[in-house]
Amino acid sequence: IPSAMIVRRSLLSTAGAPPLFQAARSSPSQCVRLLHNNMPAARIPPPTPFVPDPQTFLTLIGRNMSQHAAKIPTWEALFSLTSQQLRESGVEPARSRRYLLHWREKFRNGQYGIGGDLSEVTDGVGELRVVEVPVSTGNRAATVTSSAGMKKVVVNVPAGADMPSVPLEQVKPVEQVRILGASTITGPWVEPLKGTNGQGARIVAKEGLWEQRRGHKIDGGERRKAEVRAKRRSAERKNSRA
């Protein structure tokens, strides 16, 4: 025990202590919790053709978040406002702010909903076509082997065009869609184009396209389920005796 006391006394003395310990003793008012204030600001991702402004972003993620578009006027504000600042601007309830921050981080990390990877978009509409490209092109998403050395993929094309604006060797297959059968484009929210025999489709930016729907509480949710069901059984027993 005496040796332990000596060690503690030596730690309390700044003489001969490590520089980091001396700095902490010399500035007791500095709190480690405040270090996050000195962290660099998070990166603001650039807008994309499918998501060019805050209004479109809020519309896509759904849950009626588009009603807050006037409170987030710029793209920079969308990706830099803190939860407290969103609260002060009137983004309520708290679950709406959490949902917005969740989708904001996903977008910052390049995790888009369907259509987010489109590069040819006109008035919120991206058109898709099935084309044949060399097997070595792109990834395996939405592909069907058609012939030796070739495969069918779904690509984004300019409005009204049948082929992409870049060479076939450079095209990137559209994510989150697939080819059904020989050449029919399918996927969530994919709308077929008339006169294309299923080989043409479009994705339209609309309310709730990327929405992650909330679950529905059953019998009061997880916290109250046991209580609600116990009261129900008790009431049923009383009614059965009557």
UniProtKB/TrEMBL annotation:
<feature type="region of interest" description="Disordered">
    <location>
        <begin position="207"/>
        <end position="242"/>
    </location>
</feature>
<keyword id="KW-0496">Mitochondrion</keyword>
<feature type="compositionally biased region" description="Basic and acidic residues">
    <location>
        <begin position="207"/>
        <end position="229"/>
    </location>
</feature>
<dbReference type="Pfam" id="PF09597">
    <property type="entry name" value="SAM_Ribosomal_mS41"/>
</dbReference>
<protein>
    <recommendedName>
        <fullName>Small ribosomal subunit protein mS41</fullName>
    </recommendedName>
</protein>
<feature type="domain" description="Small ribosomal subunit protein mS41 SAM">
    <location>
        <begin position="54"/>
        <end position="110"/>
    </location>
</feature>
<dbReference type="InterPro" id="IPR019083">
    <property type="entry name" value="SAM_Ribosomal_mS41"/>
</dbReference>
<comment type="similarity">
    <text>Belongs to the mitochondrion-specific ribosomal protein mS41 family.</text>
</comment>
<dbReference type="InterPro" id="IPR039603">
    <property type="entry name" value="Ribosomal_mS41"/>
</dbReference>
